[in-house]
Automatic annotation (TrEMBL):
Sequence similarity: Belongs to the MQO family.
Gene symbol of the encoding locus: mqo
Classification via Gene3D superfamilies: D-Amino Acid Oxidase, subunit A, domain 2, FAD/NAD(P)-binding domain
Enzyme class: oxidoreductase
Pathway of action: Carbohydrate metabolism; tricarboxylic acid cycle; oxaloacetate from (S)-malate (quinone route): step 1/1
Name this polypeptide is given: Probable malate:quinone oxidoreductase
Keyword Lyase appears in the UniProt entry: no
Amino acid sequence: MTPTDQNPAKPVTDVVLIGAGIMSATLGVLLKSLDPNLTIAVYERLDAVAAESSDAWNNAGTGHSAFCELNYTPERPDGSIDISKADKIAEQFEMSKQFWASLVHEGKLPDPTTFIQSIPHMSFVWGADNVNYLRKRYESLLHSPLFKGMEFSEDPAQIANWIPLVMDGRDATEPVAATHMPIGTDVNFGSLTRCLFKHLKEQPGVEFHLGHEVEDFRRKADGIWRIKVKDLATRQDRIVRARFVFIGAGGGTLPLLDKTNIPEANGYGGFPVSGQWLKCRNPEVIAQHQAKVYGKPALGSPPMSMPHLDTRQINGQKELLFGPYAGFTTKFLKKGSYTDLFRSIEVGNIRPLLYAGARNLGLTRYLIGQVLQSPQERTAVLREYYPKANPADWQLEVAGKRVQVIKKDKKVGGVLEFGTEMVTSADGSVAALLGASPGASTAVAIMFDLVQKCFSERVATPEWQARLRELVPSFGERMATDPALTAAVRERSQRVLQLAG
Protein backbone atom coordinates (compact mmCIF):
# COMPACT_ATOMS: atom_id res chain seq x y z
CA MET A 1 0.00 0.00 0.00
CA THR A 2 1.33 3.42 -0.91
CA PRO A 3 1.26 5.76 2.08
CA THR A 4 -0.37 9.13 1.65
CA ASP A 5 0.43 12.39 3.35
CA GLN A 6 -1.91 13.37 6.14
CA ASN A 7 -4.26 16.23 5.44
CA PRO A 8 -1.94 18.99 4.16
CA ALA A 9 -4.11 21.55 5.94
CA LYS A 10 -3.39 19.94 9.28
CA PRO A 11 -0.57 21.68 11.18
CA VAL A 12 2.76 19.88 11.33
CA THR A 13 3.37 18.17 14.68
CA ASP A 14 6.07 19.94 16.67
CA VAL A 15 7.50 16.81 18.30
CA VAL A 16 7.22 13.12 17.43
CA LEU A 17 8.35 10.64 20.10
CA ILE A 18 9.08 7.12 18.88
CA GLY A 19 8.91 4.49 21.61
CA ALA A 20 6.77 4.61 24.75
CA GLY A 21 9.46 4.06 27.37
CA ILE A 22 10.92 6.17 30.15
CA MET A 23 13.01 8.31 27.79
CA SER A 24 10.13 9.43 25.58
CA ALA A 25 7.89 9.90 28.62
CA THR A 26 10.49 12.10 30.32
CA LEU A 27 11.14 14.19 27.21
CA GLY A 28 7.45 14.63 26.46
CA VAL A 29 6.60 15.84 29.97
CA LEU A 30 9.69 18.06 30.08
CA LEU A 31 8.88 19.78 26.78
CA LYS A 32 5.24 20.27 27.73
CA SER A 33 6.38 21.76 31.04
CA LEU A 34 8.59 24.20 29.15
CA ASP A 35 6.02 25.06 26.46
CA PRO A 36 2.42 23.91 27.00
CA ASN A 37 1.57 24.94 23.41
CA LEU A 38 3.83 22.35 21.79
CA THR A 39 2.04 19.60 19.87
CA ILE A 40 3.34 16.08 20.52
CA ALA A 41 2.62 12.69 18.95
CA VAL A 42 3.81 9.39 20.46
CA TYR A 43 4.18 6.20 18.40
CA GLU A 44 4.77 2.78 19.97
CA ARG A 45 4.74 -0.53 18.10
CA LEU A 46 3.52 -2.56 21.10
CA ASP A 47 0.03 -2.33 22.55
CA ALA A 48 1.21 -1.02 25.93
CA VAL A 49 3.63 1.56 27.28
CA ALA A 50 6.80 0.61 29.20
CA ALA A 51 6.59 -2.96 27.90
CA GLU A 52 10.25 -3.37 26.98
CA SER A 53 13.34 -2.06 28.83
CA SER A 54 11.33 0.23 31.13
CA ASP A 55 9.23 -2.62 32.52
CA ALA A 56 9.95 -3.45 36.16
CA TRP A 57 10.85 -7.07 35.39
CA ASN A 58 13.19 -6.03 32.58
CA ASN A 59 14.99 -3.22 34.42
CA ALA A 60 17.23 -3.36 37.48
CA GLY A 61 15.24 -0.55 39.11
CA THR A 62 18.08 0.42 41.38
CA GLY A 63 17.94 4.13 40.86
CA HIS A 64 21.56 4.03 39.76
CA SER A 65 23.33 6.60 41.91
CA ALA A 66 26.79 4.98 42.19
CA PHE A 67 26.25 4.29 45.89
CA CYS A 68 26.77 0.56 45.38
CA GLU A 69 27.86 -0.03 41.75
CA LEU A 70 31.56 -0.83 41.94
CA ASN A 71 32.21 -0.55 38.19
CA TYR A 72 31.68 3.23 38.47
CA THR A 73 34.76 3.56 40.71
CA PRO A 74 37.67 1.85 38.95
CA GLU A 75 41.04 1.41 40.60
CA ARG A 76 43.84 3.30 38.83
CA PRO A 77 47.22 1.65 38.10
CA ASP A 78 48.72 3.48 41.10
CA GLY A 79 46.09 1.95 43.41
CA SER A 80 44.01 5.12 43.86
CA ILE A 81 40.27 5.18 43.14
CA ASP A 82 38.76 7.23 40.32
CA ILE A 83 35.40 8.58 41.54
CA SER A 84 34.70 10.96 38.63
CA LYS A 85 32.12 8.69 36.99
CA ALA A 86 30.48 7.95 40.34
CA ASP A 87 30.15 11.70 41.00
CA LYS A 88 28.62 12.25 37.58
CA ILE A 89 26.06 9.45 37.87
CA ALA A 90 25.14 10.35 41.45
CA GLU A 91 24.55 13.94 40.34
CA GLN A 92 22.46 12.80 37.38
CA PHE A 93 20.24 10.67 39.58
CA GLU A 94 19.78 13.60 41.95
CA MET A 95 18.51 15.53 38.90
CA SER A 96 15.98 12.76 38.29
CA LYS A 97 14.74 12.93 41.89
CA GLN A 98 14.46 16.73 41.71
CA PHE A 99 12.43 16.52 38.50
CA TRP A 100 10.08 13.87 39.88
CA ALA A 101 9.67 15.86 43.10
CA SER A 102 8.73 18.96 41.10
CA LEU A 103 6.14 17.01 39.13
CA VAL A 104 4.69 15.57 42.35
CA HIS A 105 4.58 19.06 43.86
CA GLU A 106 2.78 20.41 40.77
CA GLY A 107 0.28 17.54 40.77
CA LYS A 108 1.60 16.04 37.54
CA LEU A 109 2.66 12.79 39.20
CA PRO A 110 0.60 10.85 41.78
CA ASP A 111 1.61 9.54 45.20
CA PRO A 112 5.38 8.94 44.78
CA THR A 113 5.19 5.63 46.63
CA THR A 114 3.64 4.23 43.44
CA PHE A 115 7.03 4.42 41.73
CA ILE A 116 9.85 5.07 44.24
CA GLN A 117 10.77 3.57 47.61
CA SER A 118 13.59 4.04 50.10
CA ILE A 119 15.98 1.14 50.48
CA PRO A 120 19.65 0.93 51.52
CA HIS A 121 22.23 0.55 48.76
CA MET A 122 25.15 -1.69 49.71
CA SER A 123 28.38 -2.98 48.23
CA PHE A 124 29.65 -6.32 49.57
CA VAL A 125 33.00 -8.00 48.91
CA TRP A 126 35.14 -10.79 50.32
CA GLY A 127 38.86 -11.57 50.15
CA ALA A 128 41.72 -9.36 51.36
CA ASP A 129 42.33 -7.58 48.03
CA ASN A 130 38.65 -6.76 47.54
CA VAL A 131 38.30 -5.57 51.13
CA ASN A 132 41.24 -3.25 50.61
CA TYR A 133 39.67 -1.92 47.40
CA LEU A 134 36.32 -1.26 49.05
CA ARG A 135 37.98 0.55 51.95
CA LYS A 136 39.85 2.83 49.54
CA ARG A 137 36.66 3.38 47.54
CA TYR A 138 34.79 4.41 50.67
CA GLU A 139 37.53 6.80 51.76
CA SER A 140 37.65 8.37 48.30
CA LEU A 141 33.87 8.80 48.01
CA LEU A 142 33.65 10.62 51.33
CA HIS A 143 35.42 13.58 49.67
CA SER A 144 32.22 14.18 47.65
CA PRO A 145 29.09 15.64 49.31
CA LEU A 146 27.01 13.33 47.14
CA PHE A 147 28.16 10.37 49.26
CA LYS A 148 27.75 11.95 52.67
CA GLY A 149 26.29 9.46 55.11
CA MET A 150 27.88 6.35 53.62
CA GLU A 151 29.04 3.79 56.22
CA PHE A 152 31.81 1.20 55.93
CA SER A 153 32.38 -1.92 57.98
CA GLU A 154 34.63 -4.97 58.09
CA ASP A 155 32.84 -6.27 61.19
CA PRO A 156 30.88 -9.45 60.34
CA ALA A 157 28.39 -8.72 63.14
CA GLN A 158 27.62 -5.25 61.80
CA ILE A 159 27.31 -6.53 58.24
CA ALA A 160 25.03 -9.33 59.46
CA ASN A 161 22.83 -6.71 61.06
CA TRP A 162 22.48 -4.98 57.67
CA ILE A 163 22.16 -8.10 55.49
CA PRO A 164 21.57 -11.28 57.50
CA LEU A 165 20.99 -13.52 54.46
CA VAL A 166 24.36 -12.61 53.02
CA MET A 167 26.27 -13.42 56.22
CA ASP A 168 24.36 -16.48 57.46
CA GLY A 169 26.50 -19.56 56.84
CA ARG A 170 29.52 -17.65 55.55
CA ASP A 171 33.07 -18.78 56.39
CA ALA A 172 33.97 -16.81 59.55
CA THR A 173 37.67 -16.78 58.65
CA GLU A 174 37.14 -15.02 55.33
CA PRO A 175 37.72 -11.22 55.30
CA VAL A 176 34.56 -9.32 54.32
CA ALA A 177 33.59 -5.70 53.96
CA ALA A 178 30.51 -3.70 53.06
CA THR A 179 29.38 -0.14 52.52
CA HIS A 180 25.90 0.96 53.50
CA MET A 181 24.07 4.00 52.10
CA PRO A 182 20.71 4.51 53.82
CA ILE A 183 19.29 6.96 51.26
CA GLY A 184 19.27 4.53 48.34
CA THR A 185 16.12 3.96 46.31
CA ASP A 186 14.20 1.35 44.40
CA VAL A 187 12.45 2.77 41.33
CA ASN A 188 9.71 1.03 39.39
CA PHE A 189 10.42 2.63 36.02
CA GLY A 190 7.48 0.85 34.44
CA SER A 191 5.07 2.46 36.90
CA LEU A 192 6.83 5.83 36.59
CA THR A 193 6.61 5.70 32.79
CA ARG A 194 2.91 4.93 32.90
CA CYS A 195 2.34 7.81 35.35
CA LEU A 196 4.25 10.25 33.13
CA PHE A 197 2.35 9.20 30.02
CA LYS A 198 -0.99 9.38 31.84
CA HIS A 199 -0.26 13.02 32.64
CA LEU A 200 1.02 13.71 29.12
CA LYS A 201 -2.06 12.18 27.43
CA GLU A 202 -4.29 14.52 29.45
CA GLN A 203 -2.59 17.60 27.96
CA PRO A 204 -4.02 19.45 24.95
CA GLY A 205 -2.18 18.93 21.69
CA VAL A 206 -0.95 15.42 22.49
CA GLU A 207 -1.69 12.37 20.33
CA PHE A 208 -0.96 8.82 21.47
CA HIS A 209 -0.73 5.86 19.10
CA LEU A 210 -0.09 2.31 20.37
CA GLY A 211 0.25 -0.54 17.91
CA HIS A 212 1.94 1.72 15.36
CA GLU A 213 5.33 0.91 13.85
CA VAL A 214 7.60 3.54 12.33
CA GLU A 215 9.06 2.21 9.08
CA ASP A 216 10.96 5.01 7.37
CA PHE A 217 11.97 8.68 7.35
CA ARG A 218 12.36 11.32 4.67
CA ARG A 219 13.28 14.94 5.08
CA LYS A 220 12.17 17.31 2.34
CA ALA A 221 13.53 20.71 1.31
CA ASP A 222 11.15 22.46 3.69
CA GLY A 223 13.00 20.90 6.63
CA ILE A 224 9.99 18.90 7.81
CA TRP A 225 10.40 15.20 8.52
CA ARG A 226 8.01 12.81 6.73
CA ILE A 227 7.67 9.67 8.85
CA LYS A 228 6.13 6.52 7.40
CA VAL A 229 4.03 4.80 10.06
CA LYS A 230 2.10 1.52 9.85
CA ASP A 231 -1.02 0.88 11.92
CA LEU A 232 -0.41 -2.74 12.92
CA ALA A 233 -4.12 -3.38 13.49
CA THR A 234 -5.32 -2.21 10.06
CA ARG A 235 -1.98 -2.70 8.22
CA GLN A 236 -2.47 0.77 6.71
CA ASP A 237 0.44 3.12 6.12
CA ARG A 238 0.39 6.86 6.52
CA ILE A 239 2.81 9.77 6.53
CA VAL A 240 3.24 11.85 9.67
CA ARG A 241 4.95 15.23 9.44
CA ALA A 242 7.09 16.61 12.26
CA ARG A 243 9.54 19.39 13.00
CA PHE A 244 11.50 17.38 15.59
CA VAL A 245 11.86 13.61 16.00
CA PHE A 246 13.12 11.71 19.04
CA ILE A 247 13.88 8.01 18.67
CA GLY A 248 13.73 6.42 22.11
CA ALA A 249 12.85 2.88 21.10
CA GLY A 250 15.42 1.02 23.21
CA GLY A 251 16.96 -1.79 21.18
CA GLY A 252 14.82 -0.70 18.22
CA THR A 253 16.53 2.69 18.03
CA LEU A 254 19.58 1.68 16.01
CA PRO A 255 17.77 0.49 12.83
CA LEU A 256 15.44 3.51 12.96
CA LEU A 257 18.36 5.91 13.39
CA ASP A 258 20.00 4.38 10.34
CA LYS A 259 16.87 5.07 8.28
CA THR A 260 17.08 8.80 8.99
CA ASN A 261 20.25 8.91 6.85
CA ILE A 262 21.76 11.66 8.97
CA PRO A 263 25.57 11.68 8.68
CA GLU A 264 25.94 11.50 12.48
CA ALA A 265 24.42 7.99 12.46
CA ASN A 266 27.12 6.55 10.22
CA GLY A 267 29.31 3.87 11.76
CA TYR A 268 27.14 2.94 14.74
CA GLY A 269 26.45 -0.69 15.47
CA GLY A 270 24.95 -2.69 18.30
CA PHE A 271 25.92 -5.72 20.36
CA PRO A 272 22.84 -7.29 22.00
CA VAL A 273 23.07 -8.86 25.45
CA SER A 274 20.20 -10.74 27.09
CA GLY A 275 19.57 -11.08 30.78
CA GLN A 276 17.97 -13.51 33.23
CA TRP A 277 17.08 -13.30 36.93
CA LEU A 278 16.63 -15.79 39.69
CA LYS A 279 13.37 -14.81 41.41
CA CYS A 280 12.74 -15.91 44.98
CA ARG A 281 9.44 -17.71 45.59
CA ASN A 282 9.77 -18.14 49.37
CA PRO A 283 8.05 -15.30 51.30
CA GLU A 284 10.03 -16.12 54.46
CA VAL A 285 13.33 -15.59 52.65
CA ILE A 286 12.09 -12.42 50.94
CA ALA A 287 11.09 -10.96 54.30
CA GLN A 288 14.63 -11.39 55.69
CA HIS A 289 16.35 -9.15 53.13
CA GLN A 290 15.91 -5.39 52.88
CA ALA A 291 18.69 -3.95 50.71
CA LYS A 292 20.21 -3.77 47.26
CA VAL A 293 23.53 -5.56 47.57
CA TYR A 294 25.97 -5.22 44.67
CA GLY A 295 29.21 -7.14 44.30
CA LYS A 296 32.19 -7.04 41.97
CA PRO A 297 31.37 -8.13 38.40
CA ALA A 298 33.04 -11.23 37.03
CA LEU A 299 36.15 -10.66 34.95
CA GLY A 300 35.19 -9.84 31.35
CA SER A 301 31.51 -9.33 32.10
CA PRO A 302 29.56 -6.29 30.86
CA PRO A 303 28.48 -3.65 33.41
CA MET A 304 24.85 -4.74 33.17
CA SER A 305 25.93 -8.07 34.66
CA MET A 306 27.03 -6.74 38.04
CA PRO A 307 25.72 -9.38 40.48
CA HIS A 308 23.20 -8.12 42.99
CA LEU A 309 20.84 -9.53 45.58
CA ASP A 310 18.06 -7.07 45.08
CA THR A 311 14.96 -6.20 47.09
CA ARG A 312 12.29 -4.76 44.80
CA GLN A 313 8.77 -3.39 45.11
CA ILE A 314 6.82 -4.41 42.01
CA ASN A 315 3.08 -3.87 41.67
CA GLY A 316 2.75 -3.35 45.41
CA GLN A 317 4.54 -6.56 46.33
CA LYS A 318 8.00 -7.09 47.82
CA GLU A 319 10.20 -9.22 45.60
CA LEU A 320 13.75 -10.58 45.85
CA LEU A 321 15.87 -11.09 42.73
CA PHE A 322 19.41 -12.23 42.11
CA GLY A 323 21.38 -11.74 38.94
CA PRO A 324 21.42 -10.87 36.25
CA TYR A 325 22.83 -13.79 34.35
CA ALA A 326 23.94 -12.58 30.94
CA GLY A 327 23.61 -14.31 27.61
CA PHE A 328 24.04 -13.70 23.92
CA THR A 329 21.09 -13.01 21.67
CA THR A 330 20.57 -11.70 18.17
CA LYS A 331 17.39 -9.89 19.23
CA PHE A 332 17.56 -6.15 19.89
CA LEU A 333 14.27 -6.23 21.83
CA LYS A 334 12.62 -8.80 24.10
CA LYS A 335 9.70 -8.80 21.68
CA GLY A 336 11.96 -8.38 18.67
CA SER A 337 13.23 -10.61 15.88
CA TYR A 338 16.18 -13.01 15.81
CA THR A 339 17.24 -11.23 12.59
CA ASP A 340 17.71 -7.85 14.34
CA LEU A 341 21.49 -8.12 14.65
CA PHE A 342 22.02 -9.28 11.08
CA ARG A 343 19.75 -6.60 9.61
CA SER A 344 21.72 -3.94 11.52
CA ILE A 345 24.97 -4.77 9.71
CA GLU A 346 25.79 -2.52 6.76
CA VAL A 347 28.76 -1.10 4.89
CA GLY A 348 29.07 1.90 7.21
CA ASN A 349 29.38 -0.08 10.45
CA ILE A 350 30.88 -3.45 9.53
CA ARG A 351 34.45 -2.26 10.15
CA PRO A 352 33.70 -0.93 13.68
CA LEU A 353 31.77 -4.13 14.43
CA LEU A 354 34.68 -6.34 13.41
CA TYR A 355 37.27 -4.29 15.28
CA ALA A 356 35.14 -4.10 18.44
CA GLY A 357 34.51 -7.84 18.26
CA ALA A 358 38.22 -8.58 17.96
CA ARG A 359 39.00 -6.33 20.94
CA ASN A 360 36.32 -7.91 23.16
CA LEU A 361 36.91 -11.65 22.79
CA GLY A 362 36.86 -11.97 26.57
CA LEU A 363 33.30 -10.66 26.63
CA THR A 364 32.31 -13.14 23.93
CA ARG A 365 33.76 -16.02 25.94
CA TYR A 366 32.00 -14.76 29.06
CA LEU A 367 28.61 -14.63 27.30
CA ILE A 368 29.06 -18.11 25.86
CA GLY A 369 29.86 -19.36 29.35
CA GLN A 370 26.73 -17.71 30.71
CA VAL A 371 24.57 -19.30 28.01
CA LEU A 372 25.98 -22.74 28.85
CA GLN A 373 25.52 -22.39 32.62
CA SER A 374 23.62 -25.22 34.30
CA PRO A 375 21.07 -24.62 37.08
CA GLN A 376 23.67 -25.90 39.55
CA GLU A 377 26.22 -23.36 38.32
CA ARG A 378 23.71 -20.52 38.64
CA THR A 379 22.94 -21.63 42.19
CA ALA A 380 26.67 -21.66 42.99
CA VAL A 381 26.91 -18.00 41.96
CA LEU A 382 23.84 -17.16 44.06
CA ARG A 383 25.42 -18.86 47.08
CA GLU A 384 28.39 -16.51 46.90
CA TYR A 385 25.92 -13.83 48.06
CA TYR A 386 23.43 -16.01 49.94
CA PRO A 387 25.32 -19.06 51.26
CA LYS A 388 22.25 -20.97 52.43
CA ALA A 389 20.21 -20.47 49.26
CA ASN A 390 17.87 -23.38 48.51
CA PRO A 391 17.46 -23.90 44.73
CA ALA A 392 13.82 -24.89 45.30
CA ASP A 393 13.10 -21.32 46.49
CA TRP A 394 14.19 -19.74 43.20
CA GLN A 395 12.95 -19.74 39.62
CA LEU A 396 14.61 -18.42 36.48
CA GLU A 397 12.95 -15.45 34.78
CA VAL A 398 13.88 -13.81 31.47
CA ALA A 399 14.80 -10.15 31.83
CA GLY A 400 15.13 -7.48 29.15
CA LYS A 401 17.52 -7.06 26.26
CA ARG A 402 20.27 -4.45 26.14
CA VAL A 403 22.06 -3.28 23.03
CA GLN A 404 25.57 -2.07 23.80
CA VAL A 405 26.78 0.66 21.46
CA ILE A 406 29.58 0.02 18.97
CA LYS A 407 30.97 3.08 17.24
CA LYS A 408 33.82 4.10 14.99
CA ASP A 409 37.13 5.03 16.55
CA LYS A 410 39.98 6.59 14.57
CA LYS A 411 42.68 4.84 16.59
CA VAL A 412 41.38 1.30 16.91
CA GLY A 413 38.64 1.11 14.27
CA GLY A 414 35.74 0.39 16.59
CA VAL A 415 34.95 0.43 20.32
CA LEU A 416 32.25 -1.16 22.45
CA GLU A 417 30.61 1.37 24.77
CA PHE A 418 28.78 0.36 27.95
CA GLY A 419 26.91 3.56 28.74
CA THR A 420 24.23 5.59 27.01
CA GLU A 421 24.90 7.78 23.99
CA MET A 422 22.83 10.52 22.42
CA VAL A 423 23.10 10.98 18.65
CA THR A 424 21.76 14.27 17.26
CA SER A 425 21.69 15.74 13.78
CA ALA A 426 23.70 18.90 13.14
CA ASP A 427 20.55 21.00 12.85
CA GLY A 428 18.97 19.47 15.99
CA SER A 429 15.88 18.20 14.17
CA VAL A 430 16.37 14.56 15.14
CA ALA A 431 17.86 12.83 18.16
CA ALA A 432 18.22 9.21 19.15
CA LEU A 433 19.30 7.46 22.34
CA LEU A 434 21.51 4.37 22.16
CA GLY A 435 22.97 2.14 24.85
CA ALA A 436 22.06 0.67 28.21
CA SER A 437 22.94 1.22 31.88
CA PRO A 438 22.57 3.53 33.74
CA GLY A 439 19.92 4.60 31.20
CA ALA A 440 16.57 5.03 32.94
CA SER A 441 18.03 6.36 36.18
CA THR A 442 19.69 9.24 34.36
CA ALA A 443 16.83 9.93 31.93
CA VAL A 444 16.24 13.45 33.24
CA ALA A 445 19.88 14.51 32.84
CA ILE A 446 19.97 12.98 29.36
CA MET A 447 16.80 14.79 28.31
CA PHE A 448 18.05 18.09 29.74
CA ASP A 449 21.15 17.67 27.55
CA LEU A 450 18.97 16.87 24.55
CA VAL A 451 16.82 19.96 25.04
CA GLN A 452 19.90 22.17 25.30
CA LYS A 453 21.29 20.74 22.05
CA CYS A 454 18.14 20.51 19.97
CA PHE A 455 16.17 23.49 21.31
CA SER A 456 19.16 25.73 22.00
CA GLU A 457 17.54 29.03 20.96
CA ARG A 458 14.59 28.51 23.26
CA VAL A 459 16.73 27.21 26.13
CA ALA A 460 18.64 30.50 25.99
CA THR A 461 15.51 32.51 26.74
CA PRO A 462 14.94 33.73 30.32
CA GLU A 463 11.57 31.94 30.41
CA TRP A 464 13.00 28.49 29.68
CA GLN A 465 16.02 29.06 31.91
CA ALA A 466 13.76 29.95 34.83
CA ARG A 467 11.45 27.00 34.19
CA LEU A 468 14.36 24.55 33.98
CA ARG A 469 15.55 25.72 37.39
CA GLU A 470 12.05 25.38 38.80
CA LEU A 471 11.95 21.76 37.65
CA VAL A 472 15.54 20.95 38.69
CA PRO A 473 16.89 23.50 41.19
CA SER A 474 20.49 22.32 40.70
CA PHE A 475 20.33 22.90 36.92
CA GLY A 476 23.57 24.49 35.74
CA GLU A 477 25.36 23.89 39.07
CA ARG A 478 27.82 21.23 40.25
CA MET A 479 26.49 19.39 43.27
CA ALA A 480 29.71 17.39 43.60
CA THR A 481 31.59 20.54 44.62
CA ASP A 482 28.84 22.30 46.58
CA PRO A 483 27.89 20.65 49.89
CA ALA A 484 25.25 23.28 50.73
CA LEU A 485 23.49 22.89 47.36
CA THR A 486 23.61 19.10 47.62
CA ALA A 487 22.10 19.13 51.11
CA ALA A 488 19.34 21.58 50.12
CA VAL A 489 18.15 19.87 46.95
CA ARG A 490 18.47 16.41 48.47
CA GLU A 491 16.37 17.42 51.49
CA ARG A 492 13.67 18.78 49.15
CA SER A 493 13.61 15.64 47.03
CA GLN A 494 13.56 13.31 50.04
CA ARG A 495 10.72 15.26 51.64
CA VAL A 496 8.48 15.55 48.57
CA LEU A 497 9.11 11.99 47.39
CA GLN A 498 8.54 10.68 50.93
CA LEU A 499 11.96 9.04 51.12
CA ALA A 500 14.07 8.33 54.17
CA GLY A 501 16.40 11.22 55.01
